Amino acid sequence: MKRLAVVCFFLVLNLYTEKLRAQSEPQSPDQKSNWNVGMEGMLGASAGKNFYSFNVGGPSLHLRLTKDLKIGVGALPSFYVRDGKTGAKLGVAPRLDYKSWVLIVPFFHFDKTEVWVASAGLGYKFHKKI
Fold first, then answer.
1. Is 35 part of any domain?
2. In this structure, are residues 57 and 48 in contact, taking their beta carbons and an 8 Å threshold?
3. pLDDT of 77-91, one tens digit each?
4. CA separation for the pair 41, 75 (Å, rounded)
5. Residue 125 within any structural domain of the chain
6. SS3 per residue for the chain
7. How many domains is the chain partitioned into structurally?
8. How far apart are CA 10 and CA 70, in angstroms?
9. Can you tell me the distance from the alpha carbon of 75 to that of 85, in angstroms, rounded to the nearest whole number?
10. pLDDT confidence of 12, banded at 50, 70, 90?
11. For 59-79, what is each residue's pLDDT tens digit?
12. Domain extent for 52
């Protein structure tokens, strides 16, 4: 059931991003600018042992390796399900960005038990030029 929810989440996410991408296409291809202003966000899901989380991209630092490839580390505000209980946590994650896809490996700390929980997942970045 949880896998079905994750698959449905990514299908809806993909359909929505295609709609946004079609709306944000430039109207004339010969218009170019030296600089641009835009917004970028990321939605993702990750899973670990008895642990699932839905993440949004928070602040991050990147090293751009090529036009399409970046590596970095960032904070991930997340909603999680751990051993059947839900909550909200801030995760820390190394990330690998390729075009609009993000491979994330978030780590979450639980204070009461002094345990770090690791998970791995995939995210999608939204781009909107203003």
1. no
2. no
3. 999 999 989 999 999
4. 12
5. yes
6. CHHHHHHHHHHHHHHHHHHHHHHCCCCCCCCCCCCCCEEEEEEEEEEECCEEEEEECCCEEEEECCCCEEEEEEEEEEEEEECCEEEEEEEEEEEEEECCEEEECCEEEECCCCEEEECEEEEEEEEEEC
7. 1
8. 22
9. 22
10. low
11. 889 999 999 999 999 999 999
12. 2-25+42-129
What is the pLDDT at residue 18? 63
Tell me if 16 is assigned to some domain.
yes
Tell me the C-alpha to C-alpha distance, in Å, between residue 66 and each of 62, 98, 115.
12, 9, 36
Q: Does the structure show a pLDDT above 90 at 20?
A: no
**Residues 6+ positions from 4 with CB-CB distance below 8 Å:** none
Average pLDDT over residues 4-24: 61
Q: Which amino acid is at 82?
A: R
Asked if the structure places residue 31 within a domain, the reply is no
Encoded amino acid at 27, one letter: Q
